Amino acid sequence: MKTINVISVFGLIMFCMFETVGAGIIHTANYNGHAYHLLDTDGTKWWHEAEAEAVSLGGHLVTIDDAGENQWVFNTFGPQAIAYANANNLPDRNNISLWIGLTDHLVEGSYQWSSGDPIGYFNWASGQPQNGVPDEDFVGIVVSPWAPSKWHDIVGDTREIDLPFGIVEAPVPIPGAIWMLSSGLAVLIVTRRSKK
To answer: Which of 1, 45, 174, 193 has the fewest CB atoms in 10 Å of its CB?
Structure first.
């Protein structure tokens, strides 16, 4: 009976851990010691929702540190976002962007990364940021159709034609650590039950 309980608890722990990690993720890739995830969208997931999902996954929307990382994010996730948008017949699929963690929503014109990292690189498209409307406070990498891989400012809702997908940057999970944590919890439960 104790063995069945331990197996059940272990299975539940593993299910919860992996179910949470896989929620809302279309594609995952590693770069420079970090895990990057392309978040799904239905055309109504905006910057704050994408950032909240990124935090729930242990990271933030991506902080772009240099031209190499910018190009890697664009090359790795741009085609995936296009394929997902087309396969799911999403609105505005001809104007795809990738949310990054850069924003000036707290103070207009004063950009900061959601991760809190210092800013050392920009890749604005010509004429950007334009602040065409008062709340174009969130930044995305253009995937299509104009200025591919360049940045532009985006409003936080559906008023403008844009289909942004969030890009999460998080530490690479260590499978051995997950296994050890789960095994340790199982042993602890068995030990405590056997002492009773």
So the answer is: 1
Question: 99-133 pLDDT, tens per residue?
Answer: 999 999 999 889 999 999 999 999 999 999 987 78
Count other C-beta atoms under 10 Å from residue 115's C-beta: 17
Ordered by where they begin, the domains of the chain are: 26-172 (3.10.100.10)
